[in-house]
Amino acid sequence: MFNKAHLAGVLLATLAALAPSLALAAPTEGWKLRYQRSYNGKPVEGQDPIWVFAAKGEALISSEAILAGKAGFPFEQQFIKPAAQELLQLARLSPGEGIATLDRESLPKQSYEFSEETRTILGYRCKKAKTVVNSNTIELWYTTELPAAGAPTVLGHQLGLVLELVRNGNFVISATQIEPFQGLDLAEMAQGGKLEAAPLLDGLSYKDRVWRSRFTTIPVFQDQIVNFSGEDREPREGVTRYANGTVVLKTVQLPEIAPGSQVFVDLLARSNGDAYDRTGSVFVIPLGTKEVEKGKKATRNFLDGLQRGVAALPAYQNGNGRTYRGVVATEDYAPLIELMRFFTPFGVKHYNHLQLKGKTWHEAAPYRMDITDLAQRLSGQQLALGVFIGNYDKGGHKLDLNLTIHPSDAATAMFSKPVSPSTGAASSSASSSSAPRLIPLFNTTNVMEMAEQDYATMFDKPKGLEVDFTLDRPLKNARLRYISTGHGGWTNGDEFVPKKNTILLNGKEVFSFVPWRQDCGAFRLFNPASGNFNDGLSSSDISRSNWCPGTATNPIYIDLGHMKAGRHRMTVRIPQGPREGTSFSSWNVSGVLVGE
């Protein structure tokens, strides 16, 4: 399975760099132990068995995959000297990069409650010690019948040789094999490393580097201003501003995303002068030859409107005399694909000087959304990734935006099978081998509001929003990713009045619900500039139509089953409230059809 020469090769050269301070020992005799994990009495599937090399004064914790040269990056190993209370953490982040940290604080802090119970494990009499770590009860079965100290984790090295660890009574790490090991020479192993001396980091920096190396980060915007101004005061390379600065756009190349990976969009926003709660949207426009599906290949997209003006976008009319541009798919146009709908709070950071007793305002509003279902269908594509914040303030807002891709061996159950919105049950008919498909149908958010794109008031007529589309082949396990938020008016406006959304497919109702948020008061500390009322409430406390100042709105998934090839019509109906003087209501809804 492994030999000493290979083991020397996989240990980091950090040991060599640190050898003088660690006073590495001469070749020793000890034991090598193999451990396996089980949960509720059943072996954990696909596990990488732990290997421990234990001698009288030191121990090395590794794994079978590491020793065989098959471990994926990053991987970690631990070198423990119990008598010296030293724990050296070693991490290989890539074939040419390693880091380490030396911990002299953790081992002395370990404390145990000892029991009179004994057991025999692999022929050795073991005693029991118990400790509590982060509310988890850990039982350690250890033997002192061998002149060695070691354990499958960093717990218990001072006790002797730990042959079994039990966490909360149901997760067990058990030694399944123990053999003598001759000539354990850590100094020789260290010299066998092929890396340059790796840096020795403080513990927090070490953990952060290891954590960040486990996923891919695609930076998009950093300290980016989104404001209402024709002047770009802080131009950034690769960033284009539209709609008088209220839309920022950057071209991003997504890598191929492996099945089972999860993808998130991370946004951090703060006021740069604007005091109000504003509608925001993170969206993508696919570019290049690998277009998203839309019946026939799209020859136009929202980028045409951003670059040439809103008149370049196709018109939609519902009979109320108004024209809405770029909101529904046509035979040659694909609307925006919305990754995340978010809402800025009232002036977070910029207005933190507005003090209230007992209130310590947050410094920024964080938003994080799982976009795995969309990203897997955009894998490998070049995208125009944009952010819109509707505001009329020259200071506006500042934001940071990243995409993160997290590889995983366990596929995401939510998106591996279609889910019924009523029961949450996954359909058994999903086929993971089918190619993913994505069809953007509608997006009524007026992203070009500051460039004359009208508000989405088309729900004032029974027709509501209708989009006709053609499937050139059947769509299996179809579901609609739907985001809905109500806006406008005061007291009687749809922002503050619950309204039912009804979705119809080919004239038949498939789903209805009332989008509503009643937890807005929980986000008060993000809203320093929120107005306070005579009844003791703040404006940011008030329940709203599926959003709160300082939150993102979750999409819902509407199961449509298998859709046949041919012509279809999707309809959205909402009983939009009437105008009251200069006040009016509107609804921002977006819908993307996903399936196989």
UniProtKB/TrEMBL annotation:
Keyword vocabulary terms for this entry: Disulfide bond, Glycosidase, Hydrolase, Signal
Pfam family, one: PNGase_F-II_N
InterPro entries: Cu2_ascorb_mOase-like_C, PHM/PNGase_F_dom_sf, PngaseF_C, PngaseF_N, PngaseF_N_sf
Gene Ontology MF term list: hydrolase activity, acting on glycosyl bonds; oxidoreductase activity, acting on paired donors, with incorporation or reduction of molecular oxygen, reduced ascorbate as one donor, and incorporation of one atom of oxygen
SUPFAM superfamilies: PHM/PNGase F
Ranges of residues in domain Peptide-N-glycosidase F N-terminal: 217-405
Signal peptide per UniProt: 1-25
Protein name in the entry: Peptide-N-glycosidase
Source organism (scientific name): Kinneretia aquatilis
